[in-house]
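We treat protein structure as text, and this decision shapes the records that our systems exchange. Such a record has a labelled line for the sequence and another for the backbone structure tokens. The record that follows is passed on verbatim for readers who wish to inspect the format:
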Amino acid sequence: MAELDHWHPVLFADELGKKPAPVRVCDRELVLFRASDGKATLGALADVCPHRGMRLSEGRVEGGRLVCPYHGWSFAPDGEGKCPATPAARPSADAFDVVERYGLVWIKRRGAQAAFPTLDVSGYHLIGKTRQRAEAPLEVTLDNFIEVEHTPEVHALLGYPRERMAEVTCEVTSTETSVRVYNEGPQKALPRPLYTLLQIEPGDSFVDDWTTWFSPVSTVYDQYWLDPATGERRPNALRIAIFFVPVTAGQTDIFALSYALAAPWDRYGLNAFAYLLTRAFVVMELRRDVTLLGKLADKSPELRGKTLSRFDKPLGLARKRIETIYRSRG
């Protein structure tokens, strides 16, 4: 399965403690564990003992090795096994490359040459991380996140008013490895306190500028506001990185890392409060997206036969790159 040749986030780092943790990615069941001092060395193995098929995630970590709870066979992070009853035996478990970065645990097929994704968040502060599971295939889940026509109906805060969607500009550019979409239009009306929190004014233009990559499938959003009279940017901005991880053919995990520029609240000691509120509404918007995806009547990734709008051009471009880059077909 070529999809596993790319790095995928599968767990938040703080979710992996002393006990092994089962995960599912691209229809493969894996087990993650911390070896050595409990933190420095990570292991990722197929979640099945090669002896008699026991789930290794039901076992324990002992002496830096994952011990199967059935017969006591043990496995190192590289998959090298030991059999207490037959010391000369050389069993092995399927092992995967695994690293911990950005507060996430990532895996890929062992030895695959995919580059690790990089995030440019200099000047930004991490305000939150969340994982949501969409009951929809990878392509259909990604579709929702690479068009803004749904924002009037689905989003409560970040997006455009339905009656003014015709004013929203949408510019799509692409390379062999990416698809970029720049959207600009009037921000939908917000509760008055949020204007103060976001340091914006009623009537401001909202910019949603994102680029989608395909090794792994991920999108980085730059969201900010413009003064419509001068075109100047307001001081606040969000940068949100979302990684789309197939769990099964019909389920997709969404890992989101949310960042914000420093708000001018330091002198009042209110930065933490502002970030908490911002994080809360980012999580809320993601949940609304996931809830909507679960209610789709047609979850087929096939686009032929569907009536598409001017906001849907990225869908076809993304599918081509998923096939050629992510799935290595064609």
